[in-house]
Amino acid sequence: MRSVSEPRIRRRAGEGVVATGSAASAGGRTGGPAGATRTARTAWVVAVLAVLLVVALTSAVSFGSVDIPIGEVWSVVGRRLRGEPPEAGTRDLIVWQLRLPRALLAAVVGAGLGLVGTAVQALVRNPLADPYLLGISSGASLGAIAVIVLGAGTGGVLGWGLSASAFAGALAAFALVWALARRGGGFSPLRLVLAGIGVGQFLSGFTSFLVLQAGDEQQTRGVLFWLMGSLSGAQWDQLALPTTAVVLGLLVLQARARALNALLMGDETAAGLGVDVARLRRELFAVTSVLTGVLVSVSGAIGFVGLMVPHVCRLLIGGDHRRLLPVSALFGAVLLVAVDTLARTAVSTQELPIGVVTAVIGAPVLLLLLDRRLETR
Amino acid sequence: MSGEATADDTMRITVENLRVALAGRDILAGVELIAAAGEITGLVGPNGSGKSTLLRTVYRHLKPQGGRVLLGERDLRSMTPAAAARHVAALPQERESDFEFTVREVVAMGRTPYQKAFAGDSAADRAAVLIALVQTGVEEHQGRRFATLSGGERQRVLLARALAQEPDVLVLDEPTNHLDVRHQVELLTLLRAQDRTTLIALHDLNAAASVCDRLHVLHEGRVRASGTPREVLTPALLAEVFGIRAAVLDHPLTGDLLIAVDHRTTAAAEVPAVESSGLRR
């Protein structure tokens, strides 16, 4: 059984990273899926992404400083899932303790970023928006870096104390933006964006000051990893919170999918369609902020995923949020698992910050897709 | 309580002493009007007279500082947003959206007030969308991206979205703006074919005179005159409210009112400026 399936999976696993990109560009070429076929197309996209997610997770666990054959990966996981005593030796340690929690955290964070990106773009009705536009991540970074530089030494980038202070920073930024944006009875897109950018820059100023105060090289490295994002040091017990947040976030947003569609057509149109626009904006802002805070507090500010994923998914399956929200989550998960694997393995001597890889890969892909799309106008 | 009476109940819009202030300025200063069941009621008036503000209050984008908008006997503000949207559909002036929606998806948004969270489209939803697509003649475009449509096609699609709401009352804010003449005629013909209460703001006085059963002239946040187009659109009123010189004729083809505007001189040129701006406070 194992000997039959192994070569096939391995071959696909090698293509995993590339395949996400080529599937996306195929969507760009067709120049617009027709409404009647979009549902069928969505089923295909979901099926392909689901397969890719399994492939990406498997290869994420398989590849690394020590390559572990895929059959071994599944056998270790199978033993653990069946509740049998773990295999003796380092394989169980590498697969179950180190790589699998990290791969799953990448999937959860990627799903969350895709989800939040989609929702924030609707919230401020701007396709250039990303989860960090509204200043929440600046708050989280400030909270985390304050602990790194000023606080006691905590183990690893993902220590609980760091996460807690990052989340506290995110909530503080959220409260500040909320207070500024609601003045004048608003939460209008422009007001939200301006308040978010203002608060973000303000907090980043403090962050920069703290970075300058960083004592030794190790602190500086910790700070940099935080600012660029990292999934290193992921552990099983850190998965529950972000997973819960992402699932709840998806449910809350999915329940409002039609209202999000209406909101994109304009505030007046949405009001005419029976949407309580002011209330919807408050809810969206709160949900996306809390979710962003949770994500950033476990992984730092991983850039570009939240901006790129909604765009690619819109090109693939169209703008209806009933499909767009879950597909963005799925695509975000696949993308971040693949990118994190690349970040771990691309340079053999060191691990690249994942934010560097998302930007280097993501920016050209996005530009290419949008360029083709605009040509068909 | 006959069926006909209840239908009439939810098909009449009554605006009572409506007051709206924006940024501390009174835009509507006690507007009173009725849009009768099944009629096309027009709003005309110069820029800034409060037409859009009045319509926005009817479709609940704006909250009034005073007064009420009644649907039949019920205050629209006392209803939930979705319940109100099942009776009143809007075609606002905003032209947003570059977000990858198809024509069909845009029209299907009209079903939003009927749909529960997580539920798919019902048979009634699909039927209403199809009827709206056919009525407005855009069913052949239903798979196209909304962003690729021409201005005339867009307005028909947005009208289809409003019709998919199956409303008793249609509220339209200058729907013919930016359309060429042919598309203006087509859109107004579509409206005339509807058997719904229609409240419409129009810039083009001849279009308003032709399509509307009754007109209300808004001026400085109040209703200055109400009645049939022939009663309302007199040379004296056009001079006073719009500041134009115009002859009012009969249209040689349709017999409708025809307003021939003097595009060389304003009416203000004949009246001392101070008096005209202070008129009828």
What is the compact description of this entry?
The complex is a heterodimer of chains A (377) and B (281). Chain A has helices spanning 2-29, 35-62, 70-81, 90-123, 136-150, 160-182, 189-213, 217-228, 240-255, 257-264, 267-272, 277-299, 305-317, 321-345, 354-375. Chain A is globular, with a radius of gyration of 21 Å.
What can you tell me about this protein's structure?
The complex is a heterodimer of chains A (377) and B (281). Chain A is an all-alpha fold and 377 residues long. Chain A contains 15 helices and no strands. Chain A has helices at 2-29, 35-62, 70-81, 90-123, 136-150, 160-182, 189-213, 217-228, 240-255, 257-264, 267-272, 277-299, 305-317, 321-345, 354-375. Chain B folds into two domains: 3-233, 3-Layer(aba) Sandwich (Rossmann fold), CATH 3.40.50.300; 235-281, no CATH class. Chain B has 281 residues and is an alpha/beta fold. In chain B, helix 5 (123-135) packs antiparallel against helix 6. Chain B contains eleven helices and twelve strands. At the A-B interface, helix 2, helix 10 and helix 11 of A face helix 3, strand 6 and helix 4 of B.
Helix content of chain B: 25-40%
Residue stretches of chain A low in confidence (pLDDT < 50, at least 5 long) are 1-35, 154-158
**CATH fold node name of the largest domain in chain B:** Rossmann fold
**Kindly state the mean pLDDT of chain B as a whole number?**
90
CATH architecture of chain A: Orthogonal Bundle
The figure for the number of domains of chain A is 1
| Straight-line distance between termini of chain B | 44 Å
Q: What fraction of residues of chain B sit in β-strands?
A: 25-35%
Named CATH topology of chain A: ABC transporter involved in vitamin B12 uptake, BtuC
How would you state the average pLDDT of chain A, rounded?
83
Radius of gyration of chain B: 20 Å
Q: How many strand elements of chain B?
A: 12
How many domains of chain B? The number is 2
CATH-assigned homologous superfamily of chain A? ABC transporter involved in vitamin B12 uptake, BtuC
Protein name (chain B): ABC transporter ATP-binding protein
InterPro entries (chain B): AAA+_ATPase (IPR003593), ABC_transporter-like_ATP-bd (IPR003439), ABC_transporter-like_CS (IPR017871), P-loop_NTPase (IPR027417)
Pfam family, one (chain B): ABC_tran
Keywords (chain B): ATP-binding, Nucleotide-binding, Transport
